[in-house]
Amino acid sequence: MKEKSKFNFLRMGQFSYLSLSIFNTNNLWESASSCAFSFIFSFIPVVMIIISACIGLLKKFPNILAYILKLGDMFKSIYDITPIVNEMLQAREVNLMTLFLAFWIIWMARKLFMSIMQSITQIFHSVTENRSFINQILTFAGEFLLVVIVILLVVMSFVLQQILDLPVIKQIQETINIVIKPKTNLFATIIVYSIFFIFVTFVYRFASGTKPRLRLCVFYSFLCNVSFFFVSYFITLTINVSNYNFLYGAISTLIMLMLKVYMFFILFLLFAQMIYVTQFFDILLWGEVYLLPTYEEKNIIDASRRVLFIKPTIVKNKNKIIEKEPNQVIFTKGEAVNEVFYLEKGSICVNFDKEIKYYNSGSFICDIQCILNKPHEGTAFALTKCRLITISENDFKELLQRNSAAAKKAISQISEYTENLNIQDY
Question: Most distant CA pair in the chain: distance in Å?
Answer without folding.
Answer: 101
